[in-house]
Amino acid sequence: MIMEKKLLVEDHIKRNKRSTVIVCTMMAALFAAVVLAFGYIFFGNIIIASIFAIPIGIGYVLVTYSISVGSVLAAAKARPANPRIREEKLLIYRVEEMAIAAGIPKPKVYVQDSEYINAFATGKNPDEGVICVTTGALKKLNQEELEGVIAHEMSHIKNYDIRIATVTIGVVGAISLLAEILFWSMLWGGGRSRGRGEGNAILIVLAILLVILAPIFARLTYLAISRRREYLADSTGAYLSRNPEGLAKALEKIKQDHPKSKPKGSKTVAPLYISNPFRRVDVSSVWSTHPPIDERIKKLRSM
Amino acid sequence: MDPLILALIIILIIVVLVFILVFVGYHNKIIRMENRIDNSWAQIDVQLRRRSELIPNLMETVKGYMKHEKEVLENVTKARSALMSAKTPQENINADNMLTGALKSLFAVAENYPDLKANQNFLNLQDELTNTENKIAYSRQHFNDSVLAFNNTIETFPGMWFAKRMGRKTRDMLQIPDAAREVPKVKF
Questions:
Q1: pTM, rounded to two decimals
Q2: Residues whose CB falls within 8 Å of the CB of residue B115, separated by 6 or more in sequence, listed in order
Q3: With bands split at pLDDT 50, 70 and 90, how would you rate the model's confidence at B181?
Q4: Residue B10: Cβ-neighbour burial (10 angstroms; 0-12, 13-18, 19+)
Q5: Min CA distance, A220 vs chain B (Å)?
Q6: Domain total of chain B
Q7: Which fold has domain A69-161+228-301?
Q8: Which of A39, A222, A246, B174 would be A148's cystine partner, CB 3.0–4.6 Å?
Q9: Would residue A144 show up in a list of annotated catalytic residues for this protein?
Q10: What's the sign of the alpha-carbon dihedral A149, A153, A158, A164?
Q11: pLDDT (tens digit per residue) in A155-211
Q12: Do A122 and A130 form a contact (C-beta atoms < 8 A)?
């Protein structure tokens, strides 16, 4: 049996950050490849292609960048935490404490009425953070476990994960949009570079393949980034609370706590939750936004 | 102009620009990290003060119920005055430690007084004091984290060059006595 090397929390954090850089670079390369393909097929000239394709891409990203925190909270039907209810007052206190540990301004605290244990974070940047916890979590978790969950969410805010997720989703959308424009224009008129010989035909076929597969790869890359950021939030949270066991215990409770019916609400907010409310927690694949829950527990316990 | 010379000039300009960016980047990074340290130090003070303010209220509330627990109550009062009259940093830490311990004992003893535990005022104060003690612990933790990050930056390459030129030295972390560390993870 191979002994798992006991890694310091700091090492986990470093590893997760490195993986993010690698995956984001892949995403950027993918975007560049799609723009080139676009250019080649459409205009036979890469420079003209970039002039058209890049503004579409950047524009799309900027639009999606301006997150509406309000809409996320409204979709979740969240309400501000009520300090007159003791559980919620204690939640506010725990969030204030963790914000000091994280060195960020105190996020706003919201509560979602739901019997299931869950929490999410949102906000454009650490100065305007928002943390939301379900009433189910407040009832079912003890203070140590709640602290672990809060530390995890605080880490998402501190690490700019919400911004990363929004920009990445924007890039995925831009890639898909470009691919679609290309596909339809191919169907209706074909590229201007046709008729230049056989070598070109092969290139065109490759470009078409790229354009069909790119959105799929973009989505897979985005999901890989999402999973990596989840691990990072786990390790940063463990560092802030100096107590990986708290979150590990909370995750175990979440494991037992499957929702029996699918909650309403847009799926795009799924990555912000500590555990994807739209999917089973025990099954995880390349199509998951979150890593498998047992893996997360194992890593936390090895810190 | 000879295209080769043009290319070399462009490369030179780019290299200079990169150098300037790195220079500015590290300079600003060091300043920001220092500010973070100062900020977290100030935060510790704010929390200590808050705790100090809550104590008279706490003593008033429990006085009536815990009449026979003279020693426990006196310990809190003594520790508080020791803290207010502490002059050196070491005296400060010792007194602070004493106060944390005294409060812990008070709350432990309060468990035996169901009437007191039912008092809403007492409950609120207990929650607030736990909150303040946690904040004291976390602000010290954050101070040490900030110092560690700063020291790492100025002791490694290339931060150490900038640090020397800016006259920055490594800072000391707070040595927190073990007893004080137990309070924050107060379980309910």
A1: 0.81
A2: B65
A3: very low
A4: exposed
A5: 34
A6: 1
A7: Zincin-like (3.30.2010)
A8: A246
A9: no
A10: positive
A11: 999 998 888 887 787 778 777 877 777 777 766 655 444 545 555 677 677 777 877
A12: yes
